[in-house]
Amino acid sequence: MKVGIVQFPGTNCEYDTQHAFAALGCETQILWHKEETIPAGTDLVVVAGGFSYGDYLRSGAIAKMSPIMKALKVYAENGGKVLGICNGFQVLTETGLLPGALKRNEGLHFISRHHHLKVVSNTNDFLRRCNVNDVVNIPIAHHDGNFYIDAEGLKELYANEQVLLKYTDAKGNIDNPNGSVDSIAGICNKNKNVFGLMPHPERAMEALLGSDDGRAMLEGFIHA
């Protein structure tokens, strides 16, 4: 499997992401933001976490205008698989590849810790290796992770099984760290080929580092 990983000025999780997919046996390539095409044969493009362009204006607002994002939109519209992690999720909502928006955390503080998530839907390539209601322990690290969508948009997300993950405690009870609507931590588009989440599965690949629950999540793309 060939994975491209988008790198903007200010991205800081591209090499964590590269390490994670390489550990799963994937071929990886860093894609600089000024590149105008997605390499032929790419099976998945990951928009990695960090602070693209320093999060000036707002998170992802400048990144969406990069040449690579124009190519990525075409790639996604043609059925290519895309995963946005943290800042990558913010970038994908800014470009319109995913619905909703990411706002400043409700408590106005940067949050960095492990947090539990419950799997809401697995009828997609990303979470097919997980079971519905599984609880996983995945790191979060964000300042603007408060997912917002209006009531009509939220209704559509549930109707199309686009809500993928919710923030919970270890028992699966709602535990919302940032104020996200309905405690939503991850979603996908209607076609289920574009995915976004604020938590970092690429940082949960080894039990020695606190959790290896991210492996099953990322393996879904490989076994699709």
Explain what this protein looks like in three dimensions.
It is built from 5 helices and 11 strands. With 224 residues, it is α/β, with parallel strands linked by helices. Strand 10 (184-188) and strand 11 form a beta hairpin. It has a single domain, classed as Class I glutamine amidotransferase (GATase) domain (Rossmann fold), CATH 3.40.50.880. The protein has helices at residues 14-23, 67-77, 87-95, 151-159, 214-222; strands spanning 2-7, 27-32, 44-47, 81-85, 101-103, 111-119, 135-142, 146-148, 163-168, 184-188, 194-197. The mean pLDDT is 96. The strands form 2 sheets. The protein has a 9-stranded mixed sheet with strand order 2-1-3-4-11-10-9-6-7, sandwiched between helices. Strands 5-8 form a two-stranded antiparallel ribbon. The radius of gyration is 16 Å and the shape is globular.
Fraction in helix: 10-25%
Indicate the low-confidence ranges by residue numbers.
none
What spatial order of strands do you see in the largest sheet?
2-1-3-4-11-10-9-6-7
Distance between the termini: 11 Å
**Which CATH architecture would you pick?**
3-Layer(aba) Sandwich
Assign an overall shape: globular
Radius of gyration: 16 Å
Total of domains:
1
Beta-strand residue fraction: 25-35%
| CATH class value | Alpha Beta
| CATH fold-level topology | Rossmann fold
**Tally of separate helices:** 5
User: Count the strands?
Assistant: 11
In CATH, what is the homologous superfamily?
Answer: Class I glutamine amidotransferase (GATase) domain
H/E element string? EHEEHEHEEEEHEEEH
Compute the average pLDDT: 96
What does the main sheet amount to? 9 strands, mixed
Structural class: alpha/beta
